[in-house]
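Hi R.,

As promised, here are both runs. First protein below:
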Amino acid sequence: MTIKEQSQNGRSETERHAFVAAPANGKARVAAPAAPSPSAARKSTVAKVSHTLSVALAERLEEFAFFQRVSESAVIEYALTKFFGQGSDDAALGESLRKDGAGRRRKS
């Protein structure tokens, strides 16, 4: 069985299969269709991301954002926009980062 999520105009946007594991009697059951979420029809203009920062940098970011009355996300977005605004040559941007000591982080 397929569950179709519909946008506000009634057109199908996504399809998912919703099967539930067979119970002890061996008969498969199908889950009831889920109601489409109100946000399914809207496309978000932001993405939620999560990255690690050094404790000192995270504290500096938190303090700066608080006293300047801006969000931490706004500060990070501004910094990344400035960084990527330096040019479209990803290799050059990467080389610049590595030259200044940036590298891959490893989980401890």
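And here is the second one, sequence first, then its structure tokens:
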Amino acid sequence: MARRRTLPRALTDNTRNHYELLIAIGVCITFAGIFSTSYLAILEGARAPFQAWITGSTFF
């Protein structure tokens, strides 16, 4: 019976680790964006709490 050719085990583990690292970096960038947007909105809201609602202006 013919044997299938497979990739070496170390190469597949290395590739998997690379993808997991890229996913973790993407998650960190997403959380940093959420945090910075929330922080800037709260900071602007504390500076002028009702100005944006009355004038219809936006923070960003």
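A quick note on the second one: The chain has a mean pLDDT of 79. Let me know what you think.

Best,
J.
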